[in-house]
Automatic annotation (TrEMBL):
Name of the molecule in the record: Nuclear nucleic acid-binding protein C1D
Gene designation per UniProt: C1D
Record note on quaternary structure: Monomer and homodimer.
Keywords: Cytoplasm, DNA-binding, Nucleus, RNA-binding, rRNA processing
Subcellular location: Cytoplasm; Nucleus, Nucleolus
Biological process (GO), any one: regulation of gene expression
Coarse class of the protein's main subcellular location: cytoplasm
Family per record: Belongs to the C1D family.
One GO CC term on file: cytoplasm
Length: 141
């Protein structure tokens, strides 16, 4: 950064923030180029419906987030713009997709195996008749 030329149009104190912002914009640009290099149909054909929903939600959220930043750079308060409600709506759907994904990952309970496991783990006293028969057989020998 020391070799960069500092522009006199803005305060020196924010130079580092602006450099970081410029680097972030460059990274976003590279990611967008990567995403745009593959056609949407090709991408979606390779994914199951849940993954397709995730891609659509991330795309919509990213686009609306970028519009939020654009509004902020134009002096418009994005918190008072309908884009805020749209971001909240997309976030709700992202949470629903996350719940579905979590349910798929959750272990399934095999009720039969669980009941056999519990039944075999419990102690059962021997019937009284069986112990008398065993004792009679021992005393006669």
């Amino acid at each position: 950064m020391a070799s960069e030329e500092i522009n006199e149009d803005y305060p020196v104190e924010i130079h580092e923030y602006l450099s970081t912002f410029e680097n972030s914009i460059g990274a976003v640009d590279e990611m967008l180029k990567t995403m745009m290099s593959v056609s949407r149909n090709e991408l979606l054909q390779k994914l199951d419906p849940l993954e397709q929903a995730k891609v659509d939600l991330v795309s919509a959220y990213t686009l609306n987030s970028m519009f939020w930043v654009y509004l902020a750079t134009q002096g418009v308060n994005p918190k008072e713009h309908p884009v805020k409600q749209e971001l909240e709506r997309i976030r709700e759907y992202m949470n629903k997709v996350k719940e579905i994904t979590d349910k798929k990952k959750a272990g399934k309970l095999d009720k039969g195996a669980a009941s056999r496991f519990v039944k075999n783990a419990l102690w059962e006293p021997k019937p009284k008749d069986a112990s008398k028969v065993a004792n009679k057989g021992k005393s006669k020998s």
